[in-house]
Specification:
heterodimer; A: 457 residues; mainly alpha; 2 domains; two-stranded antiparallel sheet; 64% helix; globular; disordered N terminus; B: 237 residues; alpha/beta; four-stranded antiparallel sheet; 9 helices; 10 strands; 38% helix
Chain lengths: 457, 237
C-alpha cells in the first residue's frame, strides 16, 4: 500500500502553489471569504455615515462649549476631547458591533457548514479550534478595517488644530476591539451550535438583549446583578471610554472570548456525539466560571485619561496611601437613587482603585428610594476607620475625601493650580468632515466592493 | 487495506446502518451500491469520521484505527456540496493542494483528465452540477491519502463525461490508489468497479465481484437469469 508520505513526496511542478503552512492557507481562504461577504461590506458602508453623524454632532457641541459663537470661555476644563468628542464618535463602533458585526462572524462560520466546505476541511486533521481561530482572526482584521472612519476622524480633528492624547485613545480603541472580539466569539459559538445562520443570529441578539436586561436589573436591584453587569460588553466599553483599563474586566473579556471560540470549536466538529459535545460544553463552561471568578480578584487598573478622570488628584492619593487602618463605608442609598450613582462614579470607584481593601456596602429597603426619604438614616454615608465613625451625606469627591481625612486625622493636601486639568478647548467648525464621512467613505467602500466583485467573478 | 467491522448507526429510533462489515483491498475500485436511503452516505461519513457511529470500527491490520491513522488513510469527497463557492476553481485547487498537502505533481494531469482547464477561471458557485462534480473529483484525486471515498462520482455527469471520469479513476487505481465509490446507478458500478458491496436497509446484502455476487444469489435460491448486476442486485436485496 503506498503511504501518504510516499504519495506526497513527488517533485512539484513549476506551476505549483506556494508551500506555505496549512494555517496560512486557511487564513487566506477566510480572508477571501470575508471579501465576498455582503455583511462585511454593509458594515463598511454604514460605518462612515454613522461615525460622521456622531463626530459632527460631538464636534459642534465641543466647539460651542469651547466658546464658538460667543459661548462661555474656559468650559474646556470640564470637557476633555476623550469625553467630549472621542467617546461619542467611537460609540458608532458599539452600534456596529451589536447590530452588524455578528452577521459577519456568523457567516464566516455557518457559510462553510452550509456549503459543505467544512466536511472537507475537517478531514485535514487541524484541530477545530485552529479552524475557528482563523475565522476569528480574519473577522477581527475585518473589524479593524471597519474602524478606519473613526480613525480618520482623528486626522480631521488634528487638522482643525485639536490635541490628541495617545494613551487615552489607545484605551478607547482597544476597548472597542475587545468588544468586537467578544461579539465575534459569541457569533462564532452561536453559528456553530445552531444549525442555521438565522437561528444563530437570533441566539446572538438574544445574548445581547440579555446583557441589556442584566444592566437594567442591576440598576434596579443592585447587589450581585450590579457586580455581574460591570463585566458586560457595555460596561467594558464604558470604562474604556473614560480612559480606564481595568485588568479584571480585560481578563474576564479574554476568558469569555476564549470560551466562545472553544464552544464554537466543540460544536463545529462533526464526528463527535451530542453527548460528548454536551459534556465538553459543560467542562468549558465550568472552567470559564472558575476563571472568571479568579479574574474578578485582579485589582490593578490603569487610568490612561489625560485628565485623570478615574483618579483622585495625586496629592490626595499620596495622603490616602498614608492611611493604613481598614476603611469601611456603609451607604444608605437605593440602587436607583441618582446620588448613589454620583457617589459611586465620582468617589468610590476611585477609592477602590487606590485602596483595594476598602469595604463598601449599600443598604436600602427599596430599589428606587423614593419612599425611604423620610426613613431615619436614609441618605447617610457611614464611614468606619480603625474603630472611629463618622457620618456624611456628601456624595462629591471632595465630600468623601473630607470625611475620610477627618476620620483618619490626616491634614488634607494643599490645592495646587498646577494639578488642575485645563482641557483643550477647540472652537472650530468641522469643515470637510461631512464630505469625508458621507461621500468619501461610502464612495471608496463602493469602489473597493466593485473591484473585489470584478476580481472574484 | 482496511476492514469495516460491525458499523451501526441510528438516527433516533431509525436504524441507518446495522452491523455493516466488509473488507477494502489496496488498489481496488470498490463499489458501494444500494437504493436511495440504503445508508451509503451515512456509511461514508462514519468512515471519514464526520459522523459518530454507535458501534463498530474501521480496522487496520485487525485493530481499530486511531483518528490520525484514519485521516492519513482516507479522504472523503461528499456529494452535493459546493465548497468555496465565491472562489475560482484554480484558486480552490491551489488551496486544496496547500491546505490538505496534496500532490502538486498531479495537478496538470488531473486537470486534463477531468477536462477542468476551461473551468479554472470560473467561480465554483457558477459551475453546473456536472462541472462541480468534476471539480470535486479533481480535488479528491489531488488529496494525499491512499484511499478515496467518493460519494456518487457520476452524479450529474452525462454519458461521455461518465466514461471519461471512469477512465481517469481507473488510471489512478492502476497506480495503486484505492477507490471506494458509492454509486446508485448499478450499470455504472458494474462497468468500473472491481468488487462490490451491496447495501440495502442498512445491511450488507453481499460482497464480491459480479460473478461472486451472482453465485451468492444463486446459493440463496434466486430464480431466473442472473446475467447482469441489476438482476443480481434485485435477487440479493
Amino acid at each position: 500500500m503506498p503511504s501518504r508520505r510516499a504519495l506526497s513526496q513527488k517533485a512539484p511542478s513549476p506551476a505549483a502553489p506556494s508551500r506555505k503552512a496549512p494555517f496560512l492557507w486557511l487564513l487566506e481562504k477566510e480572508w477571501r471569504d470575508l471579501l465576498v461577504s455582503r455583511g462585511w461590506w454593509v458594515l463598511l458602508l454604514a460605518m462612515g455615515p454613522v461615525v460622521g453623524l456622531s463626530f459632527l454632532s460631538a464636534m459642534r457641541t465641543y466647539a460651542e462649549v469651547s466658546g464658538l459663537n460667543g459661548g462661555a470661555a474656559g468650559v474646556g476644563e470640564a470637557l476633555s476631547p476623550l469625553i467630549g468628542v472621542w467617546a461619542p464618535t467611537f460609540s458608532a463602533c458599539e452600534l456596529a458591533a451589536v447590530f452588524l458585526l455578528p452577521f459577519v462572524a456568523i457567516r464566516l462560520v455557518a457559510g462553510d457548514r452550509q456549503s459543505g466546505a467544512l466536511k472537507l476541511e475537517l478531514q485535514q486533521g487541524m484541530p477545530p479550534i485552529g479552524l475557528i481561530a482563523a475565522k476569528a482572526i480574519v473577522a477581527l482584521a475585518g473589524w479593524i478595517l471597519a474602524m478606519l472612519p473613526p480613525l480618520s476622524a482623528l486626522l480631521l480633528w488634528k487638522s482643525y488644530g485639536g490635541t490628541l492624547y495617545a494613551p487615552e485613545l489607545a484605551a478607547l480603541a482597544g476597548g472597542h476591539i475587545l468588544n468586537a472580539a467578544l461579539t465575534i466569539a459569541l457569533g462564532a459559538a452561536a453559528a456553530a451550535v445552531a444549525e442555521h445562520p438565522s437561528t444563530a443570529a437570533i441566539l446572538t441578539l438574544g445574548v445581547t438583549v440579555g446583557t441589556w436586561v442584566l444592566n437594567f436589573f442591576a440598576a434596579v436591584q443592585g447587589g450581585w446583578a450590579e457586580r455581574a453587569a460591570s463585566y458586560t460588553p457595555e460596561a467594558l466599553v464604558a470604562e474604556f471610554q473614560h480612559g480606564l483599563v481595568p485588568l479584571d474586566a480585560v481578563l474576564i473579556a479574554l476568558v469569555l472570548i476564549l470560551t466562545g471560540l472553544g464552544l464554537a470549536a466543540v460544536w463545529i466538529r462533526m464526528g463527535a456525539t451530542a453527548r460528548r459535545r454536551l459534556i465538553e460544553t459543560a467542562g468549558i463552561a465550568a472552567l470559564a466560571v472558575l476563571a472568571i471568578y479568579a479574574c474578578s480578584f485582579a485589582r490593578p487598573s490603569w487610568d490612561l485619561s489625560e485628565n485623570r478622570a478615574n483618579s483622585f488628584p495625586e496629592a490626595d492619593e499620596r495622603a490616602l496611601l498614608r492611611i493604613h487602618e481598614p476603611l469601611s463605608i456603609e451607604v444608605h442609598l437605593a440602587p436607583e437613587d441618582p446620588r448613589r450613582s454620583d457617589l459611586e462614579h465620582r468617589a468610590l470607584s476611585k477609592l477602590r482603585r487606590l485602596l483595594p481593601d476598602v469595604r463598601v456596602s449599600y443598604v436600602s429597603a427599596t430599589s428606587i428610594g423614593l419612599f425611604e426619604q423620610t426613613a431615619a438614616g436614609y441618605g447617610e454615608i457611614r464611614y468606619t476607620l480603625g474603630g472611629r465613625h463618622t457620618i456624611s451625606r456628601a456624595t462629591t469627591e471632595e465630600g468623601v475625601l473630607e470625611a475620610i481625612y477627618s476620620l483618619a486625622g490626616v491634614k488634607p493636601p494643599e490645592e495646587s493650580d498646577d494639578a488642575v486639568y485645563r482641557g483643550h478647548p477647540l472652537a472650530a467648525e468641522p469643515k470637510g468632515a461631512a464630505m469625508v464621512f458621507f461621500a468619501l467613505c461610502p464612495g471608496l467602500t463602493l469602489a473597493a466592493a466593485i473591484l473585489v466583485k470584478k476580481r472574484f467573478s | 487495506m482496511f476492514q469495516v467491522d460491525g458499523i451501526s448507526k441510528r438516527y433516533g429510533e431509525l436504524p441507518a446502518l446495522s452491523g455493516v462489515s466488509f473488507h477494502v483491498r489496496a488498489g481496488e475500485v470498490l463499489g458501494l451500491i444500494g437504493p436511495n436511503g440504503a445508508g451509503k452516505t451515512t456509511l461514508f461519513e462514519c468512515l471519514a469520521g464526520l459522523l459518530p457511529c454507535d458501534a463498530g470500527a474501521l480496522r487496520i491490520d485487525g485493530r481499530p484505527a486511531t483518528a490520525s491513522e484514519r485521516r492519513n488513510l482516507l479522504f472523503y469527497v461528499p456529494d452535493s456540496i459546493a465548497p468555496w463557492g465565491a472562489q475560482r476553481l484554480a484558486w480552490a485547487i491551489d488551496y486544496a493542494l496547500g491546505f490538505f498537502g496534496g500532490r502538486r505533481d498531479l495537478r496538470e494531469e488531473i486537470t486534463a483528465q477531468l477536462d477542468l482547464g476551461p473551468l479554472l477561471r470560473r467561480p465554483i458557485a457558477a459551475l453546473s452540477k456536472g462541472q462541480r462534480k468534476r471539480a470535486l473529483l479533481g480535488i479528491g484525486l489531488l488529496a494525499p491519502q491512499p484511499a478515496l471515498l467518493i460519494d456518487e462520482p457520476f452524479e450529474g455527469l452525462d454519458l461521455r463525461q461518465t466514461r471519461e471520469v471512469a477512465a481517469a479513476l481507473r488510471v489512478h487505481a492502476a497506480r495503486g490508489r484505492t477507490l471506494f465509490l458509492s454509486i446508485h446507478q448499478i450499470a455504472d458500478a458494474g462497468r468500473i468497479c472491481d468488487r462490490l458491496v451491496l447495501l440495502s436497509g442498512g445491511h450488507v446484502r453481499g460482497e464480491g465481484t459480479v460473478a461472486e455476487l451472482a453465485a451468492q444469489a444463486a446459493a440463496r435460491g434466486a430464480a431466473g437469469a442472473l446475467d447482469s448486476l441489476e438482476e443480481v442486485f434485485l435477487a440479493l436485496t
